[in-house]
């Protein structure tokens, strides 16, 4: 199936009545298709179907090339507005060494300060499963250590042998030096 949406213009619009909007997005009213087409021809513009499923369908008086340009520009700005914000995963064990823990905290802060989400995965092995409180304590400590750059997004949850939680960046974080905070 073709994902491109077909836009009907001028004589391709088959509805007997249409709701007409001018170039400045001011509503002219509900007119017959012949009246709307005559108005478009007298102004030298095209009738472009904006909302075909509405009752009656909404058409706009605009040059078709200008309409396509505006639509492409709007799609581009919407695409730009969606932040890449990947999710980075850091794996820890409940009995992680102090230096390794510091490294994971440092990496999490880097990821969060550049706008990425961070997923923490604490993996339990063997008899460690009998003491999930160690994982919860580690996660609480982790949460406290990164609180200036990130807040919890999804609460801690056991999934099999892993304790998972995710963090998202704090909104008012000021980025400095290409994403690095000072």
TrEMBL record:
InterPro entries: T_IF-3_C_sf, T_IF-3_N_sf, Translation_initiation_fac_3, Translation_initiation_fac_3_C, Translation_initiation_fac_3_N. Residues 9-77 form the Translation initiation factor 3 N-terminal domain. Keywords: Cytoplasm, Initiation factor, Protein biosynthesis. The keyword Heme does not apply. IF-3 binds to the 30S ribosomal subunit and shifts the equilibrium between 70S ribosomes and their 50S and 30S subunits in favor of the free subunits, thus enhancing the availability of 30S subunits on which protein synthesis initiation begins. Belongs to the IF-3 family. PANTHER family: TRANSLATION INITIATION FACTOR IF-3, TRANSLATION INITIATION FACTOR IF-3, MITOCHONDRIAL. This is Translation initiation factor IF-3. It comes from Candidatus Shapirobacteria bacterium CG_4_10_14_3_um_filter_35_13. The lineage of its organism: Bacteria, Candidatus Shapironibacteriota.
């Amino acid at each position: 199936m073709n994902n491109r949406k077909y836009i009907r213009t001028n004589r391709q619009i088959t509805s007997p009545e249409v709701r007409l909007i001018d170039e400045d997005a001011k509503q002219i009213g509900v007119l017959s298709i012949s009246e709307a087409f005559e108005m478009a021809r007298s102004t030298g513009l095209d009738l472009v179907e904006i909302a075909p499923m509405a009752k009656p369908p909404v058409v706009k008086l605009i040059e078709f090339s200008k309409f396509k340009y505006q639509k492409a520009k709007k799609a581009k700005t919407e695409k730009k507005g969606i932040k890449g914000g990947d999710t980075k995963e850091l794996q820890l064990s409940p009995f992680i060494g102090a230096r390794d823990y510091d490294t994971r905290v440092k990496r999490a802060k880097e990821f969060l300060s550049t706008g990425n989400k961070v997923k923490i995965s604490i993996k339990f092995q063997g008899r460690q499963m009998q003491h999930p409180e160690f994982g919860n304590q580690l996660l609480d400590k982790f949460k406290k250590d990164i609180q200036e750059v990130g807040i919890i997004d999804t609460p801690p949850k056991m999934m099999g042998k892993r304790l998972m939680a995710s963090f998202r960046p704090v909104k008012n974080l000021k980025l400095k030096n290409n994403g690095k905070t000072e």
